[in-house]
Give the backbone structure.
Amino acid sequence: METENAPAYGEYEFSDEQNRLLGSLARKMALVGLFVMLFGGLQLVNGIVSFFATRNPERMLAAAKEAGMPEANLQQLEKALTSAGWLSPIAASSFAFALAGLFMLLVGIWTQQAGAGFAGIVNTKGQDIRRLMDALGALHNKYSLMYTLLVTAAIFSLISLGFTLFHLWSGRA
């Protein structure tokens, strides 16, 4: 027998205490997601701007000279900026900043989406399971990306270790 407060279609409804916990979690996730998105966006922009700034080595060298950088350091900077073109250490660092910023931006977006899903549980009646699944879907996206990046980093670390050991043992270190 269905009562007035029972949700339609057999949908589960969380208790008031559970809703308080979910609401607190939702607020914290929304705030953390916002800050991670902001920092990620700033880092992404910083990486892109830095990358394109490295495409004009003369301008960077002039700015370093104007700032009072010693001549020996200026020569090292010039070599770093012009030695490998698009693969210079500064360009690679800028690219890494941009990628890290993009990663943070995505993590922030998915954290906010999960927070919104948990907030939806508290703010609606009769949709708790659907809202919970939405939140879990956003968390799944977030952790799938993190899992993929960790596996990729582990593979590259093992390859790097292999090259280092090879050069060490072959006497080229």
